[in-house]
Structures are given as C-alpha cells and as structure tokens.
Amino acid sequence: MQIKKGFFTLEMIFLGLLGVILFVVMEFNYLLFHSFIEIFAIVIFFTTFLITVISRKIVESSLLLLIGISSISYAFLDLLHLLTYQGMGVFIAIDTNIPTQFWIAARYFQSISFLIGLLFSRKHVNSVLVLAINMVLVTFILLSIFTFSIFPDCYVEGDGLTLFKIISEYIISGFYGLSIYLLFRKRKKIDSHIYIFFQTALVLNIISELLFSFYTDVYGLTNFFGHVLKFFACYCFMKSIIMTFLKNPVNLLVFSLKKHERELKQELLSKDILIKDIHHRVKNNLQMISSLIILQSHEIQDEETLTVFQELQDRIQSFSLLHRHIYQSPDLSQISLESYLTQLVQYLKESINVKKEILMEIEIADVMVSTKIAINCALIITELYSNAMKHAFNHQESGKISICISQLESNHLELTFKDNGMTKIALDSLYNSKNLGFQLVLAGVEQLRGKLALVVNDGLQVIIKFPLDGKNSKNLSNHVDF
Questions:
Q1: What gap in Å lies between CA 224 and CA 222, rounded to an integer?
Q2: Which of 137, 279, 282, 464 has the largest CB neighbor count within 10 A?
C-alpha cells in the first residue's frame, strides 16, 4: 500500500503544528496538557478493543487480535493513571507513587502483548481466553496497589524515581526493541502500511520510555517530551490498526484470503506429490507382477494356458500404462486419451505377435478424459484387439484393424473398432458365454454408461457411444445389424 506524498507532507505539517500547540498548552496548564494526552491514548486503545472484538471473525492475524483485545487493559490502566495523577483531585490522599505505578503496569502490558503477538503470530488466538487473562492480571494489579500495597514503589517524594521504575523503563524498552526486530523479520508477510506506522510507534515508545526513566519532576520538561512522544506513538498506532479496519476492510480481507490461498496451494502441492508417488509405486508393482507372469509363462507348455497368461499380462499392462500417465500428467484427475491409447495399442501390437501382415489404423481424438473413461476404453480395446487377433484372421494372411475415437457434437465420444477378418468366427467368439473378454467389454460399456452396437459389413465393426461427463447416455440405441 503506497502513501500519497502530498497527503503525507500535509499530515507531517499538521502533526508539527499540533506539537507546538501541545507545548503552548503545557506552558499554560500542564494538567490540561497531560489530561489531553492520556484521554487521546485511552480513546485509541478502547476503540481498538471494540473494533477488534467486532471484527474478530474476519481477522486472521494473531498479532492484531492479541494487541486489539489487550488494548482494553492499557486503556483501563491509563485511565486510572489519569484519574490518580497529582492535581486531578478525583482520589483523596493519593501521592505521586500510585499514578506512576499504574503507568508502569500499563506499559508492561502494552510491550509484553506486542512481543507475545509477534512471537506467536502463527498460532491460533482464543479471544475469550486472552480477554480472561487480561482481566485476571488487571484485577491482580488493582489489588496489589490499592488493597495489599505489594506493588513495588515507583516514585518517592523528595527522592524521585525508584530503582524499580528506572530498571522497568529499560526492560520495557527492551521488549519494544525485540518487537521491532521480530516485526522486521515478518515485514514481507505484513501489509506495508501497517508495517511502517507500527515500527514508527515502537521506536517512539522506546524513546518515550527512556525519557521517563530519569525525570525528577512530574511537571518537568522531560516528562513533557515523554508524553508528547507517547501521543505521536498512539497516533501511529491508530494509523496502523484502527485506520486499517475503518478505511481498508476490503484490503484486510484480501490480504487474509491471499495468505489462505498460498497455504492451500502449498497443501495441494504436497498432496499432488503424494498422489503421484502412489501412482508411480502402483505402476511399478504392476510391472513387477507382469514380469512374474512372463517368468512363469516360460515354464508352461500348454498353448491355451499360455494364451490365458498373455491376456492377463495385457490387462495388467493397460492398468500400468494408466498409472504411468497419471503421475506424469499435470492434472491428476484427467489424462490425454490420445497419448494413453496410442501407447497401449502400440504395446498390444508388439505383445500379440502373429505371423501375419496386419495393418493398423489409429485415430484417437485429442481430448482430456477422466481416469475412469480412460481405463474402460483401454480394457475394451484390449479385449477387442485380442479377440480379433485370435479369431478374425485365422484363414487370412493379411488384414486390417481400425481403431477410432471421435468426439461428437452432443458432448459424447464414439469408439469404433473395426476389422476385415472372418466375421462369423469373430462374432461367435464374442458371444461365447465362456468368453471373459466380451464380458469385460460389456462391463466396460456399462461403466461408461454408453451404448454398444455390432455392425456386420465387410468384417466386424463394434461401435460404442458414451458421454464425456459420465452421466447416462441419451438418444443412443442399442442394436445389432447383420
């Protein structure tokens, strides 16, 4: 998010004039100056709390949630600091020590919540639990100051600041310094507008705390500059968080959605890698099974048994090729039908070795199909090719087989398998009740939700029409022509 240069300059001039006005007010009435600074901070913190609570369901940033919910504690403790401040007259018999104790408590709350928010920015924040912890800690501070008087003294009349107060200011500054470092490391994950103003607020808070570590007079010049810096720090805090919620809620949602998108893409990538690895392993296992079948077939002398082994190997190979195409495909849900079936037919041609001149014509539409369609087409072609090579050309020295898959206008595919062999023998073998191959063809057609037609005309022609979307095929008649 870019900051407009003209607006930025005007804003700086306004803040400079405001600093001068605050100095004039301080010279006129320090108590009025102090009240203005504290009320401004209280309003900022309380508003931050309300907006965070209202928007907590759409805010995914743990940092914003933790700081926003904890802001109610800063606001309440700063309010007590204001009301107990020397000269306010709200509480009777209150010395300078008590408002200083509330100041230190509020700054500890603020610096620690910033640091925890940055340390656990990737953790889920339970809003109710954070609010409950804040309430318990604030209650403990109130009891330790008003009831049990166990909170360490921070200011002693005549002596000034105590060692505890001075050391605490340095510790708080250290917490802010760590927050600056952690925020710098996360700068690429945070909106630039929020980052610039948030870092500025942290730097101003550090300078302010250092000034508060060595003042001697609560109405002195050092105290004045410390409060002015607190005012500007709260202003930057307001710009980084409150204005982000009020002026740019869409940007906040978009930033959160982009973060989720990156996480989902990474998760999907991991799953794709895992699924591809599974397909690769399945393919290797099928290849191993096929190799074992080949080894076993070398010991078989019976021709009929050898044929059964060969058919089994062909079916396994069709599955193996499918898994190979899946893990090599960029889309795990679809594969290229042309590439897959062309390789399958080439394998079948080399595998089923017959001493005849069989011309192969292959024309496969270049379409992406689901794995379900691909494997059923492969099984159908494997069985029809095997049947044709065994029965259609027994009394011929040459022949021709055509395999065509074309895409129809009605979002259907048409698979045509045709040979010019001995039709009656091939047809009888298909209709043989003991023929497992034809049973697999019928099962494949059913899985494709398609319709099958057998056409006898200068050979046997098998036509199967089926939908690309896998739904029931309409307006396709199931018929056999002779």
A1: 5
A2: 464
